[in-house]
Amino acid sequence: MRDMRTLDHLQDGLDAEMGWRVKEISTFIMAAKTDGAEKKVYIRAGIALMYAHWEGFVKNSSEMYLNFVHHRGLTYRELKTCFAVFGLKGKLELLAASRKSGPNIAAFDFIVSELGERAQMKMASAINTGSNLTSAVFSNIAASLDIDLDRYSTKFNLIDESLVARRNQVAHGEHVELKAQDFNDLAQEVLQLMRDYKVDVLNAASMKGYLREDRAA
């Protein structure tokens, strides 16, 4: 992934990330409309592919946004807490896990002293989908980036039951029965979810949604 040093870089990255995924899903939408025994194969494969693109897009676009925030050159104190956590997570985890006063004091002192330093986002495994991007996992990722969930809440059942559950059935070799029109409808819903997330990421970046409220003015 290239560095997202400007808003244009982020937009170009998101456009490219979305573009090839739309093409692949569209290919399976067309294939599912064909006649013949292979239609069911296309639909089963299409469900797995659709889920892979849902998970991949959310993960990669979220990491692009984090990369963009990283390159703002801001201090931890200037960032909203949810973003500062990405850089201080290791020390915070030590505080939560350790029962010894020495390591706890050292970790706390480190955190306090680092607040005025330039934030260093830990990109490795920053966004963890757990290879199972349910609505709960998605909500956690969105919340970690301070992205509002209102527009997605009505689609949680679709994510969990229509997409993730069916993908798991396909992955486990179970029978999945889905008509071509229903597959098309599901694909359109998933694509719209991805488009919505792309818009929300771009809006958050352009509106400087990563800044603490007292720094955003």
TrEMBL record:
Domain annotation RiboL-PSP-HEPN: ranges: 18-198
Top-rank taxon, per record: Bacteria
Protein name: MAE_28990/MAE_18760 family HEPN-like nuclease
Organism: Pseudomonas mosselii
